[in-house]
């Protein structure tokens, strides 16, 4: 098929889809919003042939079938807040956006489940759960923009993994459109269901390469009756590790977050971003500890007693305890200030890695030194969830625009050290295209080969988000 025949075929496809799905569901040319051309990664924006906006799984299936008939690659899109290029279209692709698949279908208070459409923003899910007297514990800085389907697609982590687990642990059932257009519906509400393979786990974390998630059954948890938080200052990483061990044993199941900030992060947040801190600067580490409990009086006393025990043992250099929910939010503002790094640092590259907890400070020290030595003018800051083995860092060369930031050199240094220290190149943001080159640093040849087998089995024509994560 030459270029003119391909163009005629594509236009015929779009006319067919307009007739079938409605003109509001098919955007082309100048009508394609800028947001549908890229996610939040540093990858250059793509130029999709069209953006399709189906309203339900059956319309998504028809869109998939039409793309297959025309041999056009297609990429699913949610909130487009990913950082690895997983939702970015290549020129000539079709983008299938779930932005019209929004809404809470059901909250079942007896089963403690919520059935929700995949394009629904995470914050909407959180609010609906709260209004029904429950908690949906997944929480990310992009909560107002990211879509729940995208959260599943990347197996998002967030701030409360230490207690509630990754997104994978919060899902009971799925509806998925397969690469051949089949709608696979298993909106299971059962926590225990061992009837054959648990197929939902094929799609959670597969970054839209094995299927398009359209509806989800989520687990809900009792809404906490008490929340306590403290922002702690410590002298050394050994004290951080001791505080984590003490929190796990002393606070037990009410421990909901354990966020660690290195002093370079603290300096940027308090000095450049001017975020007000409840504890003084000049310490070796800063830790935000949060609990969710069921009895305010008992939990508050338990939290205070635990803090006093940590202080008496010499682990704490200083600590501030939140006296209200407003102060809890203020404490979190220090940790969430990383979302404003574009203002405080200018262009920068974000990294998301997994490491054993006892190796994190060694990694941070070695990585910072290696970046400074290997890339003139390169600086970096470190922070993370720690309790679940997730370290974040951002690196940059001041004064350079984003397109001139030496990302390849940064990647080589950072991911090389990750491999040396037995970590993962991605703790919660996925692989997409930006990390694909480095997948072998965290997965064996046999594992990558099996990923290709799965991709080939479900998408033999290689049309659904091809080239992301692994290549056939």
TrEMBL record:
Pfam family membership, one: FAD_binding_4
Keyword Flavoprotein: yes
Entry annotated with the keyword Glycoprotein: no
Residue intervals passing through the bilayer: none
Cofactor requirement: FAD
GO molecular function annotations of the record: FAD binding; oxidoreductase activity
Alphabetic keyword roster: FAD, Flavoprotein, Oxidoreductase, Plasmid
PROSITE patterns, A to Z: FAD_PCMH
Similarity comment: family membership: Belongs to the FAD-binding oxidoreductase/transferase type 4 family.
Official protein name in the record: Oxidoreductase
């Amino acid at each position: 098929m030459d270029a003119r025949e391909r163009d005629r075929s594509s236009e015929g496809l779009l006319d067919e889809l307009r007739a079938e799905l409605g003109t509001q569901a098919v955007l082309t040319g100048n009508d394609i919003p800028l947001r549908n051309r890229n996610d939040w990664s540093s990858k250059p924006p793509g130029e999709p042939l069209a953006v399709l906006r189906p309203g339900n799984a059956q319309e998504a299936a028809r869109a998939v079938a039409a793309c297959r008939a025309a041999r056009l690659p297609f990429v699913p899109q949610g909130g487009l807040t990913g950082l690895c290029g997983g939702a970015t279209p290549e020129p000539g692709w079709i983008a299938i956006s779930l932005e019209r698949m929004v809404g809470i279908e059901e909250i079942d208070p007896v089963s403690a489940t919520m059935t929700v459409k995949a394009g629904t923003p995470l914050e909407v899910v959180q609010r609906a759960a709260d209004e029904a007297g429950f908690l949906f514990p997944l929480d990310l800085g992009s909560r107002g923009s990211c879509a729940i389907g995208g959260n599943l697609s990347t197996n998002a982590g967030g701030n409360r993994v230490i207690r509630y687990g990754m997104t994978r642990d919060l899902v009971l059932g799925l509806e998925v459109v397969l690469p051949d257009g089949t709608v696979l519906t298993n909106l299971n509400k059962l926590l225990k269901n061992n009837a054959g393979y648990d197929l939902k786990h094929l799609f959670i974390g597969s970054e839209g390469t094995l299927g398009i998630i359209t509806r989800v059954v989520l687990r809900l948890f009792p809404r906490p009756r008490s929340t306590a938080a403290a922002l702690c200052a410590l002298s050394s990483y050994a004290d951080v590790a001791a505080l984590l061990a003490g929190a796990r044993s002393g606070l037990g199941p009410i421990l909901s977050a354990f966020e660690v900030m290195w002093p370079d992060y603290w300096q940027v947040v308090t000095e450049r971003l001017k975020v007000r801190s409840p504890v003084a600067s000049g310490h070796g580490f800063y830790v935000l500890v949060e609990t969710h409990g069921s009895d305010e009086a008992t939990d508050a006393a338990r939290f205070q007693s635990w803090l006093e025990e940590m202080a008496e043992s010499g682990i704490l250099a200083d600590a501030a305890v939140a006296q209200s929910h407003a102060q809890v939010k203020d404490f979190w503002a220090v940790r969430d200030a990383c979302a404003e790094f574009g203002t405080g640092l200018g262009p920068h590259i974000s990294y998301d890695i997994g490491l054993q907890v006892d190796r994190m400070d060694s990694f941070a020290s070695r990585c910072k030194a290696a970046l400074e030595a290997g890339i003139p003018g390169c600086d970096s800051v470190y922070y993370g969830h720690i309790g679940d083995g997730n370290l974040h860092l951002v690196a940059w060369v001041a004064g350079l625009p984003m397109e001139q930031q030496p990302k390849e050199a940064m990647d080589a240094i950072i991911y090389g050290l990750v491999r040396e220290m037995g970590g993962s190149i991605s703790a919660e943001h996925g692989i997409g295209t930006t990390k694909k080159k480095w997948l072998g640093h965290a997965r064996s040849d046999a594992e990558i080969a099996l990923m290709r087998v799965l991709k080939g089995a479900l998408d033999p024509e290689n049309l659904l988000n091809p080239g992301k994560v692994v290549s056939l």
